Amino acid sequence: MPVIKFIEFDGTEHEVDADGGMSVMEVAMKYDVPGIDADCGGGAVCGTCHCFVEESAGPLPDVDPQEESMLGLRPDRESNSRLSCQLQVSDSIGDMTIKLPEFQM
């Protein structure tokens, strides 16, 4: 079972077991990790689950056009920015470290 370490903007860490098939956003919601609002519920149409993937054991899937569109609206976008609703937990990706932004928009 992969482990995800969420790091809040203030440095508070939450290390949780992640069930395969769930999105990183769903894992954060399951464990009440603050910092991901998920206003659209995972439809990649709001960008309020923005995160920074600091580390992953395996390769991440490519950013699709819808995710790219939402990330393009973020003034704090970085090269490792992703929408957590678009990242599925799997053994091939493995453990991940996710940093959360100061604000969701």
Describe the protein.
It contains 2 helices and 5 strands, in the order ββαβαββ. The chain has one domain (3-96): Beta-grasp domain (Ubiquitin-like (UB roll)), CATH 3.10.20. A hairpin with a 5-residue loop joins strand 1 and strand 2 (13-17). It has a 5-stranded mixed beta sheet. With 105 residues, the chain is α+β, with helices and mostly antiparallel strands. It starts with a strand and ends in a 6-residue tail after the last strand. The radius of gyration is 12 Å and the shape is globular. The protein has helices at 24-30, 65-71, and strands spanning 3-7, 13-17, 50-56, 81-83, 96-99. The longest helix is centred in the N-terminal third of the chain and has 7 residues, at 24-30. Residues 2-104 form the 2Fe-2S ferredoxin-type domain. InterPro entries: 2Fe-2S_ferredoxin-like_sf, 2Fe-2S_ferredoxin-type, Adrenodoxin-like, Beta-grasp_dom_sf.
Gist of the model:
This protein has 105 residues and is of the alpha+beta class.
Give the SSE map.
Layout: E1 3-7, E2 13-17, H1 24-30, E3 50-56, H2 65-71, E4 81-83, E5 96-99
Parallel strand pairs: 1-5
Antiparallel strand pairs: 1-2, 3-4, 3-5
Protein name: (2Fe-2S)-binding protein
Domain 2Fe-2S ferredoxin-type: 2-104
Cofactor: [2Fe-2S] cluster
